[in-house]
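Q: Structure tokens for this one, please.
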Amino acid sequence: VKVDIPTTLFWWQKNDYIGSISSTVTEQFIKLYPQLRPKIIEIHNILSPAFVRNQAKLFQVEKREDELTLCSVGRISYQKNFEAIPFVTRMLINKGLRVRWIMIGPGDCSGIKNSARMLRVEQNVELIGAVDNPYPYMDVCDIYVQPSRYEGNSVTVREAQMLYKPVVITNY
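A: Here is the predicted structure, written as tokens:
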């Protein structure tokens, strides 16, 4: 995306403060607008552990005791790397694990479905789609997985941690 620096700088300068959600976002912004550094304030997303834990109990998701349940939440996009999930699932099955991978989020999942079918893991990869409350799914998992290619400050990782879930994150 091409940014018209003079025009956007004009508008950014009109602000008393500029909120940023992470140090990574701040660094990228400062590269474009170094003169605005004094106006930047980092404000991480505020999350309530009590709210997340209460929402997780609003309905139950079946827990299959004989399977390792993994969960990933996010929009289906290049950034989130969800298309890797069927391949990783196949690798885990080939290693002898019984795996259930729950994927939650909006977007076109046809490529993921095709890969899951091709790899014969369509019974193991559950594409839930967009939901208002992902927490019951996160609560039932054994491990929360964030396979992103790149990410700012993942809110879903923090939410999974609030549900006392171990987290596996790619080195983004």
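A few notes: Residues 50 and 162 are 9 Å apart (CA to CA). The first strand starts at residue 18 and ends at 20.
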